[in-house]
What we know:
Elements: H1 3-8, E1 16-19, H2 21-27, E2 39-46, E3 52-58, E4 66-68, E5 72-74, H3 75-79
Antiparallel strand pairs: 1-2, 1-5, 2-3, 3-4
Amino acid sequence: MTDWIKRTQPIQVGDTVGYSKRFLQSTGQYTGDVPFARGKVTALLPLSTDTILAEIDWDKPELPPRVNVKNLSTIKQIQLGE
């Protein structure tokens, strides 16, 4: 990844993340562990120019270790209701 992409990427290695409000609403997940799960991004894996997977160390068991960054929000964004 170029330096520009790294600086403008909303999800970075080391960020604490959760699933985005948009993703949770689109999949109908309003209760349970998934809306409240938090994890630390340990790596970013680019699959193509449009698709980047985040490798995440979740605080809840049985969640997928790799998630498309488009389905995630940082803790700061979650606190703002995004």
